[in-house]
């Protein structure tokens, strides 16, 4: 992976969750490539340079574990993440460890936690709008306040 590659393959069959994840990755400087099933995700993986894979487990076509198994055959170093409503079952599944899945996220999930985990695994600083906090000065009896040391 080049340091410029920020393509994140998102495989999620729920359109609402796919939109939320895609928006969050995009707003943090990544380029999400969203697919609605495992087969189309595999095709996208074969056709584009991908930096990381985030996949739902239960999808039409290939399951998330099947997709990750294929990805790891081609790119053993690829950071892969699994999202599932069955997190408790999956964290005990030997395949999760064997495939080197970085993290398993349970549904409901925080999109920020997924993006942060992906960014950490890729050693990428997140991009986002700067946080600007308003500066408020205390009101004085005279109606104005000049910041500085007290007299």
TrEMBL record:
Modified residues (4-aspartylphosphate): 56
Pfam families, per the entry: Response_reg
Keyword Phosphoprotein: yes
Protein name: Response regulator
Organism: Roseiconus lacunae
InterPro entries from the UniProt entry: Bact_response_regulator, CheY-like_superfamily, Sig_transdc_resp-reg_receiver
Residue stretches making up the Response regulatory domain: 7-122
Keywords recorded for this protein, A-Z: Phosphoprotein, Two-component regulatory system
Keyword Phosphoprotein: yes
């Amino acid at each position: 992976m080049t340091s410029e590659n920020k393509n994140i393959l998102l495989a999620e069959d729920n359109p609402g969750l796919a939109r939320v994840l895609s928006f969050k990755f995009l707003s943090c400087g990544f380029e999400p490539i969203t697919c609605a099933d495992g087969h189309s995700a595999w095709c996208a993986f074969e056709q584009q340079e991908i930096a990381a894979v985030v996949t739902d487990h239960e999808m039409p076509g290939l399951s998330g574990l099947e997709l990750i198994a294929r990805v790891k055959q081609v790119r053993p170093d690829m950071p892969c993440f699994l999202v599932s409503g069955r997190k408790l079952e999956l964290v005990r599944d030997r395949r999760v460890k064997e495939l080197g899945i970085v993290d398993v996220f349970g549904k409901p999930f925080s999109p920020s936690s997924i993006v942060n985990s992906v960014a950490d695994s890729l050693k990428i600083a997140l991009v986002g709008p700067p946080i600007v906090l308003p500066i408020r000065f205390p009101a004085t009896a005279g109606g104005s306040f000049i910041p500085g040391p007290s007299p």
